[in-house]
Records
---
Amino acid sequence: MTDSIAVNWPELFQEQALTTQDERLRAFYEHGTVAGNTPLSDVPFVSLDFETTGLDAGSDEIISIGLVPFDLNRIRLREARHWLLKPRSAMKDESIVIHGITHTELNDAPDLNRVLGQVLEAIAGRIVVVHYRYIEREFLNAALKKRINEGISFPVVDTMQLEAMLYRQGVANTLKRLIGKKQESIRLGDSRSRYNLPHYGQHHALTDAISTAELLQAQIRHRYSEITPLSHIWV
Amino acid sequence: MHAEQIEVAGFLKQYPPFDSLPDEVVDDIACQAEISYYRSGHDIYQFGDEIHDLCVIRSGAVEIYRRNGDLYNRLSEGDLFGQLGLLMNNKIRLPARALEDSLIYFIPEALFTELCDRFDAFAYFVEMDDNRLRQAISSKQESNDLMASKVTRLISRDPVCLDASATIRHAAQYMTAEGVSSILIMQAAGSNREDDEPEQSVVGILTDRDLRSRVVAPGLDLDTPVTEVMTAEPVTLDEDAYAFEAMLTMLRFNLHHLPILENGCPVGVLATSDIVRYESQSSLYLVSNIMRQTSVEELAQLQPQISACFVRMVNEDANSHMIGSAMSVIGRCFKQRLLELAEEQLGAPPIRYCFLALGSMARDEQLLMTDQDNALILDNSFDAEKHGAYFEALAKFVSDGLNTCGYVYCSGNIMATNPEWRKTRQEWEAIFADWVENPDPEALLNCSIFFDLDGVFGKTKWADQLNTFIVRKAKRSPRFLASLARNALSRTPPLGFFKGFVMEKDGQHRNSINLKRRGTAPLSDLIRVHAMAVGSRAQNSFERLDDVVKAGILPAGRENDLRDAMEFIAMVRIRHQALDVETDRDVDNSVEPENLTDFERRNLKEAFQVLSNSQRFLKFRYPYTRK
């Protein structure tokens, strides 16, 4: 787990750029990353969302990737990307219920290895934003290890974590939990409605990526400021 | 290739103007959009900001402001804003602020322009949207009510009336029983009444204050007829008037009660308290200011305030009727005050007279930069040797004064200073009768001025009577109407100009359109012919149109075309003048095409087309037969 604010990300990227074998991954690291003291208003973000065949990064696989670049002012749909991917192991039927992607649709889809260059290029130099960090970073890491024998690591901003800090910490929340009171949900849809963001359909990788980007803009507008350093919110 | 934007496209397809676009176009819009989140209370655009996107509210609410900070409109989910800025040199004129936490979709300018070019419905919607906003806001906004609402909306109860034969005691008892502070005194019209006048008319008004000062204080017998203490021939207002006109009238005459009439019959009495409830507009105090000045020099110093008042009304989205009325009231006040000053200087008039306003002021359609057109009606006892010098001096004083105050001399010399336009009541009737009976070209030349007349000072009732005389006479003279119609066709709308302009896209077209000479003036000429044909006594073009439409002589379904055309041309002219004032240029009526927006150009062309069609209809209705 690289889940620590103590990591010196720019330095880590430089090191990785020297040792990485795969040229696509090396290009990603060579792009470097944003320094932790950069004010949020200057940070180029990219919101990233995966649909997977299950929740275990070790055995389940990515079947769709959605991403959209944005900054504090604008989410740029023109630059949004969406891929369907063919899983290497058979897809479990119950996951179809969740994301609605069918076997037939995936039969013609490429393997992640064929689009990896494009995916990495789209997120290179940007700070990846996700809702619940244990999916995207873990799955991408596992998928790369399977294909190119090298893992990947990068800083992320986790909008669910930011909500959790507000609603799952502190004395008041501990008391709530102790007396068995219902806690605020920090799921994407529920978090969005707290900020007056509209209801979007979920479990479509691109829609969820846009949803997450909007949520981060709202969180920053409400609880941080343009000059808050990135290191306050990345993990 | 774009990634599909299900949510954004799905949302847009629910709302106009996107709901009328092909699906694939909306899908493309969704793919090119940008999104941003604004916290409640935060600015989205400030005045003067550059704007390069059309904004669609996805969630939340946004308020649009005027430059002075007043609320202009409140928008919610699915509403658009920013189109005005995009259509006007990419500058924000009306700042926008998030009222609630809001998510905004931004559609880039290049795409917006492309959509306007490709889809008429889209272009129409975004361009018309501003009008839609204005209509929405005038019904919504308190501070605008005074400007937009008719005086009848302020009336809270039916009028309380009493016959003129009643005693003071009777009146006081009735007022107490009804709980009113004023009562209207009515009298059956005499045997020589005009046949289109009501059977009973208001001959006076009695108020609480009158009972105190004219009855109790002098200790008058309570069986005295009410007619002895009432205010006879009170100032009244027509039900068509706007609330702000009522306020102007009350300020001007220092009235606390103002009877409102519908075709001469009272429909209510407006009390000061009814007006006080409304926010006062500082521009209205200009009128009371005019009446307080004690010299021509002081009056002339108020001139900048007229322009300021005009610009303020334009910015407050008053319509052309309101602006025309307000400017006319102000112009009239200048005349009235000058006449008061003249009488102070020259002494009381030897005989009674009525000072007339002619043309646009009489029609309540005055704007900035109008010359003075005026005349005098003199009592029939006028004797040139005895009284001539007085009225010459009076006319000179007023005319010079008006010129000093910015109402320049009439180039056609239609002014009371011209002895030809100082006539007795009999002489006026004779000359109008002659014009109607022998409509030679020369007589008709002045018709567009003289056939709009209004008494502004002195025995103003004489002006009404002269009007009635003219209307009756004209209505019965088909040959005169045909000549007048012929005359109304002499000024054609500049349609060829637009054709030329459309072909020459390089902007080198140096010509300009005189919106008064080629637009509003021929329209009011045309409307006057119809109005005279149906015996309308209204002076204002819009009010005349009401009468003409009621009479049903216009081709079915086209009734509103003339009104819309008049309003549109007048408003372009008005906005052009306001811009001249704001940018310190000489105010005129000529508009250069490069200063028009596409929207204005297209709609002006349409308005001129309406004028052209209406002229053709007039020609058809009044075929001219040369004897």
---
Amino acid sequence: MKNYFSTRWGIIAVGALIGLLAALLQKMGNPPNMGICVACFERDIAGALGLHRAEVVQYMRPEIMGFVLGSLVAALLARDFRPRTGSAPVIRFTLGFFAMIGALIFLGCPWRALLRLAGGDWNAIFGLLGLAGGVFIGTLFLRGGYNLGPAKKAPKFVGFAMPLIMAGLLVLAFMNPPMAGEGKSGVLFYSLKGPGAMYAPLFIALAIGLLVGGLAQRSRFCTMGALRDLILFKQMHLFSGLIALVAVAFLANLAFGQFKPGFEGQPVAHSVGIWNFMGMVLAGLAFALAGGCPGRQLFLSGEGDGDAAIFVVGMIVGAAFAHNFAMASSPAGIGANGITGLIIGLVVCLGIGFFGMRKQA
Amino acid sequence: MTEILDERGLSCPQPVLDTLKALPSVQGGKLSVLVDTEAARENVARAAESKGWQLASVEEKDGEYTLHLVKNA
């Protein structure tokens, strides 16, 4: 069966649609330049569950559940659901953890970096350069023989674990809806101000999440892969999807009056260039060593990849630590322990890259 | 005897890296690559085609794919 979505025009169409839907989600209530941000939304989920208590970033973001469940449905329909796991799970957890530490120093995943750029936030340029730098370091390890070893086929129920966890979180969201003026509803925490208090209607966010999840699963859309393939193979395939995302999000932002160019006063962002850059160096390296950007890890976990699922869990735990340990940035600048977290993360990820290199046969 | 590259279980970009590494030294202009995800199948085929090779055929068995690559004349 021909997979139209994995052709050049397929990936461009998917990138363009993600750009449009992200701008639309922002228009319908998501935070500025954050129509979709996998790192931010996982961080908000950690807050909603009380894993950290940063009061401005607590919301059970249905887009994330939509991504995983949409990917599951697409994979099942296309007979591409392949339960597998066992490729160095603890390393993948660690990479997810430090990917989040880096992303929260910059304040966004690669998707949000692109959306910030498309919204006129020029600080994103430092983040994207850092991302490319981190991915470049990752390709050096890949050239040196780095790999985390093969995964093994797993029983079906193992592949369903992450989608079921996401379905459970969705049930929690339905059972504990936000109440006006209340910071808590049942077991879930809600933000009364800040980005966590800004969200598109639940069903619209979920529907868009499902659609993006399905399309991204079929097309293998990946922002880290786009840079990696360009650097490693001089291949433009995934990169063309990334360009389409930025171009369409930019046009949609213009149309919606959401384009505000400049460095200072950008929403949910700080303007310390060096840490915007370095945060994404760490994140980019961790993504490259794990084989996918945060979005791609969600889609992979939807199609049954248990190792990608562990990376996702690592990111959510990393978000909790980032806020509990004052490593996350805020519009006021970087956190008190941000640089410490960054250095530890770089040492750990460089170590993983180094020790993960195997002698080539 | 066609050379066979076993890339089962390996996640991207490993199958592509190994295929591109193997292609220049393949004897007889034929290489078979064994993969077990659809993404790897697409990526290996795309990479080989960019290097002047062609995907002659694909065999599927129990969710595993054997890609038969041949060098363009």
